[in-house]
Amino acid sequence: MLPQLCPLFLCMLVLSMEFSKSKGEAIQQKGSLQVELTLGESEEQDCPVCTWRKHSKEMRLESIKSQILSKLRLKEAPNISREIVNQLLPKAPPLQQILDQHEFQGDSFQHNTFLEEDEYHATTETVISMAQETDHAVRIDGNPHCCYFNFSPKIMFTKVVKAQLWVYLRPVQHTSTVYLQILRLKPVTEEGSKHIRIRSLKIDLHSRSGHWQSIDFKHVLQNWFKQPHNNWGIEINAFDPNGNDLAVTSLGPGAEGLHPFMELRVMENNKRSRRNLGLDCDEHSTESRCCRYPLTVDFEAFGWDWIIAPKRYKANYCSGQCEYMFMQKYPHTHLVQQANPRGSAGPCCTPTKMSPINMLYFNDKQQIIYGKIPGMVVDRCGCS
Q1: Helix 2-27 with 32-45: angle, nearest 10 deg
Q2: Is there a contact between 182 and 234 (Cβ–Cβ < 8 Å)?
Q3: pTM beyond 0.85
Q4: What are the tens digits of pLDDT across the range 323-363?
Q5: Spatial CA neighbour of 185 closest among 225, 134, 150
Q6: Could you state, in order of their start, the residue ranges of all structural domains in the chain?
């Protein structure tokens, strides 16, 4: 497939050069100011490698957009604005750690491993599911409104490594003992409520600035995944000695990003590593042969606010010529070319080694997903 694309690239290059040439000849007749523009375009004609790199870079950026959506199994980019992101994003320690770690992802070439199995679709590592309103079937006099957690079938078939329920407790003025309890909800029957207490904690609060409390939820979640029909949600209470409920379980003024959420660490695929080598060039290089060049992708420039982290990452791209005189480095391709010199379009400069990136993003259900997207960084280029 790749050799067949090379003639198309060559045609694009020739057409763009001819267009620049004809445009330059027309401008040259219109005065000294326009002569300077003609000289600039003439320099571009004298540097076909520069034009080639420009086309390669533009095509790489467009390819990255479509690849991300395809690998995340999204038909289109989620319609989530920056204001919605700020409202939904929990202000909690585990999320902040991910943001600090992946604010910008550098060249993954320094990492010597990559995914060996499914190298196309994204693999999920961490899922953060926000609390939703409960079904009316479990409410008594309209309560409780919180909390129901929805999980996709894909996640329910993974191995749960860790599961934490995070609850934000309002600040206390004086040191207090808080009794936190979690009830498993069930539909209300004629006999009344049968909500079952599944966890109970005694917490000593000393902070006046509020406190994020994490609760191990792995066992409960594993049971939910085995028997999804039992998942009707939970009720969360945290009473101080005066009977005040300190748990934030609904969004009110000033409570944005403080509602409960579930943090899951899951294991989706086995991986094995392979050594990685590569050769780099920079944008000022005069090298005309196939080489890897730096390219930084800026998701904010795309207008993709639904990607939380990284906002930018090093993607890199391949560009350069694959002349037949270089084929001693690629014996298989050289033999093919000798066997069919007219029927082959010749080798193209393409990625021969790709690496994944980690990404924190909102999906189309406004859930926060943290996972690995394979094949997003060019580690090595070659002729194939």
Answers
A1: 160
A2: yes
A3: no
A4: 754 444 444 444 444 444 444 456 788 999 899 999 999 98
A5: 134
A6: 118-267
